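#onboarding

Welcome to the new folks! Below is a worked example of what a typical request in this channel looks like: someone posts a single protein sequence, and someone else replies with the predicted structure as tokens. Don't worry about understanding the tokens yet, we'll cover that in week two.

Example request:
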Amino acid sequence: HFGILKKEVSLLFKSPTLYVILCITALLFSFTFSIGVYNFSQLVGNPMMQMGISEQFPKNIYYAVFLQHISLINLLFIIFIPAFSTKAFSDENKNRTFDLLMTSPIKPIQIVTSKFLSIMTFNLILIIVAIIYFSLCEFLFNIVWQTVMISLIGLFLSSFVYSSVAMFVSSLTENFLVSYIVGIIANLLIWVVGGISTFIDNMSIKNIFDQISQQGVKLAEKNISSLQS
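Example response:
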């Protein structure tokens, strides 16, 4: 069990894909987060710019900057997680090594768990990168870290859903491209379903949609939005 996990994590850190994704993530975060913080500081520091803007928006960095940052992280999870999750079984099937795994003395649950934990390692790395940008605001504003961390934990838990769905898709085909695209579409549907449920009047159907939709991102957004005032 730990041998497979060690192998999977080792392959993760040896993969050029990881470092390409981290570079893209850092560039996106640097661009969007810096612009958000700059606009917020200008808005708070200039009373003339606050005229005509709703009271709930301008004076709360959690709502004006952090919520958008968390939404971006969620979108990156949807796009990037399948890049690793879909390889979990697609590559094994393509290289005909999956049969060797299944005939080994290792239990199937141990194989799946090891691959899942290696993917969650990538998710955790992405969360850590995001925390770096939040911490930069310490030099400019007073940050309530309990709120930020609870929001990120909620987002991290939502990545469990994205990873599980993408791994399931990976088990259905040995074609990486097909697996990757279907994985993104499936995760997007999970994300969108929660929003669709708000427009449904039938409570039975609404409850079904609410159960299908992932709740981690909702928890993060609600947690930050509650501090608008």
